[in-house]
Amino acid sequence: MQQLSNKRIVLGVTGGIAAYKSAELVRHLGKLGADVRVVMTKAACEFITPLTMQALSHNPVHLDLLDTKAEAGMGHIELARWADVILVAPATADFMARLAGGHADDLLTTLCLATSAPICLAPAMNQGMWRDSVTQENRDELLERGVKLFGPDDGFQACGDVGPGRMLDPEIIVEKTSELFTHDILSGLRVMVTAGGTREDIDPVRYISNHSSGKMGFAIAEAAIEAGATVTLVSGPVHLDTPERVKRIDVVSARDMHQVVHDHLNEVDIFIGCAAVSDYRPAEVAKEKIKKDAENSGEMLELRLVRNPDIIASVTGTEKPPFVVGFAAETHNVLGYAADKMRRKKLNLVVANDVSDSEIGFGSQSNEVTVIGEELEEPLPRASKKVVSRKLLQIVARRFRKWRAQNETNESIGS
Length: 415
Ligand code: PMT
What we know:
This protein is an alpha/beta fold. It has 2 domains: 2-179, 3-Layer(aba) Sandwich (Rossmann fold), CATH 3.40.50; 190-281 and 302-414, Rossmann fold. 36% of the residues lie in helices and 24% in strands. It has 15 helices and 19 strands. The strands form 5 sheets. It has an 8-stranded mixed sheet, sandwiched between helices. Strands 2-1-3-4-5 form a 5-stranded parallel sheet, sandwiched between helices. A two-stranded antiparallel sheet has the order 6-7. The structure holds ligand PMT. Residues 194, 196, 212-217, 254, 273-277, 279, 308, 310-312, 326-329, 341, 353, 355, 361-363 line the site of ligand PMT.
């Protein structure tokens, strides 16, 4: 159930005896890497304390709709936007009725109205209440609106009755919740993306760099989060906001980037080198601003440059490299040079980017690339960098699985 890793779950707890099982539910979700925020109704607090839920979720518990403290931090609208899913367990007959009626008179119903995330309910009530025609109508209404119901289960009830209305076991609720995310093609995988250009100092006020804006790398990082991965983004100096949930590490020079990449490489399954790394840096960095004085009076100023480390080649050169995807920004013979880079740098895939067209490549909103790999040449048509990233990651996910299976086979033959 790796799909739950990194997922943001609002767990709503309403006032029924099954509320004690919600504590178990929080524990299971947390163990699987989900970030859980608990919202409790007033009645729920009669059955289980907010302190218990706070301790188990490691997050503050949300109780009131109008909470001045929460509004300054994570108010109801932020919470509604934050959630990948709202799971209400237990969901009482009263809660179902209020949700079906479109009420927004407490925090939980308001969140459910405001969110665009899926809503799932695990009903829990007396069998007579569940069978009642009004509850059944509410159930139908909620299903019609796209709310998902997990259960209820059938069996012995706390009140002594036997029949439908028991809350499902927490393990089953967790399983059903994780099934919501099975389309997440990079679930549980750790992806590192490099983005932007690097800056190589000439003196305290000048540097060598390039036109990379970081947009492509940031779009890949965002798409990887959407696809369920845990993402580390190593970025050169850019003017972009960090996509939500991405761990961003800022660097300046190629050597900084090289260091940071290797510091975190053992936490990486897939490495995507989208950065436009300066191949060279000045051999010496002047301590003071270079002046047009007697010493530099001519029309020419010569800078001696030395090679920077090739970051991506150093990644593929490690003892147990991750799956590595490189980019090749070219102005001519784009596919030929890209394929050559793939071989030389021992990449699993290379993304050929024709940067002679100003509408795509450096600084633009859109891109159009060709993904090259072993027996693969797949063009990704012109689209926003976000859309291109999503398509690219579909190929990456497919090839990664094949590569990993192959590695596992080789290891078992070797052992
Ligand atoms: O940032 P944007 O404005 O959105 O623009 C996106 C982009 C054009 C920068 C991007 O799509 C792209 O093509 N990035 C690679 C640019 C590049 O410099 O490629 P290259 O051909 O020089 O390098 C080939 C590969 O080796 C790249 O994966 C690069 O990250 C890597 N490399 C290069 C040199 C070096 N010293 N270390 C490296 O890791």
